[in-house]
Amino acid sequence: TEVGLLAKSYIDQGRLIPDDIMTRMVLSELKGLQRYDWLLDGFPRTVAQAEALDKQCQVDTVIDLDVPFETIKYRLTARWIHPASGRVYNLEFSPPKVLGIDDITGEPLVQRDDDKPETVTKRLQAYDAQTKPVLEYYRAKGLLKSFSGTETNKIWPHIYAFLQTKLPDVSQKDAAAPR
């Protein structure tokens, strides 16, 4: 979409998408999900986005994943893709059989601009500066729950147990599938 291409131009420069563009994209998608439970990842990241979301939707819970920036940077910069298929490799978790080569086609893998170390560092610094006030915003509303750690398999069971208190009808099968 036009707004999606505009968003991509910011991402490719290592910049965060401005509030008005991001809010327009997310709120447009949420209009079609009014009868469902949903989970947003990385939105809202500013108080202005949080306020816009609150005007359109009732937010029940906000989860903060407190993961050290070095862990996030390491994981993102280890990610490589096969552009034609969208296959994603991670040099630590799911490396290609031959470094830099797609397992199926034998074509070269590339690193997305937003996964390059200098871009990741800039984005994480901007994200931190903008999201601290959002965490305080939701903490003041009594909606914030934080989980700290560096490994998904250690954090996820705690998040899942917490989500079951919020959405008791969520089964393990449902939890593994995007909603």
From TrEMBL:
InterPro entries: Adenylat/UMP-CMP_kin (IPR000850), Adenylat_kinase_CS (IPR033690), Adenylate_kinase_lid-dom (IPR007862), ADK_active_lid_dom_sf (IPR036193), P-loop_NTPase (IPR027417)
Coiled-coil blocks: none
PROSITE patterns listed in its UniProt record: ADENYLATE_KINASE
Keywords assigned by UniProt, alphabetized: Kinase, Nucleotide-binding, Transferase
Gene Ontology MF: a single term: ATP binding
Catalytic activity: GTP + AMP = GDP + ADP
Domain Adenylate kinase active site lid as annotated: residue spans: 79-114
Magnesium recorded as keyword: no
Protein family (similarity comment): Belongs to the adenylate kinase family.
Name of the featured protein: Adenylate kinase 3
